[in-house]
Amino acid sequence: MRTDPFAVLAEPARRDILDKLRLGESSVTELVEHLRLSQPSVSKHLKVLREAGFVSTTVAAQRRIYRLEPSQLKAVDEWLEGYRAMWTRNLDAIEEHPEGPRPRR
Fold it and tell me: Which of 54, 62, 65, 102 could join 49 via S-S bond, C-beta 3.0 to 4.6 A?
């Protein structure tokens, strides 16, 4: 079953986890402390992120260490590309007319 990356990223706690992992690997305990969520809640979110391919894990003694898998974010980036082009066109148009829209008569 293929997971919709946008459905996974819709949950703010999961985005917070990815933001933390963007800075480097973390254990569940470190994520719990950083996010101030319960351990079961963090573990639940990590499971969803892992199954969707956003994070991977390794076992170090008694701990699981999580790391960001940026390749999974490629689908999100590709979807946003069309919007980037639109924003660029709109910003270019604003620069051409910095005084704003003309008043209606």
Answer: 54
Rounded CA-CA distance 102/105 in Å is 9
Would you state the structure tokens that stand for residue 87, as one six-digit string?
A: 């924003």
Tokens of 28: 């569940």
Q: How many CB atoms lie within 10 A of CB 103?
A: 5
Q: Do 27 and 64 meet the contact criterion of CB atoms below 8 Å apart?
A: yes
pLDDT, tens only, 35-66: 999 999 999 999 999 999 999 999 988 889 99
Taking the model in full, what pTM does it have?
0.77
The span from the CA of 48 to the CA of 54, in Å, is 9
Rounded distance between C-alpha atoms, residue 92 and residue 1, angstroms: 42
CB 85 within 8 A of CB 71: no
Complete domains list, the chain, with CATH = 5-96 (1.10.10.10)
Residue 91 is predicted with a pLDDT of 67
Coil, strand or helix at 90: helix
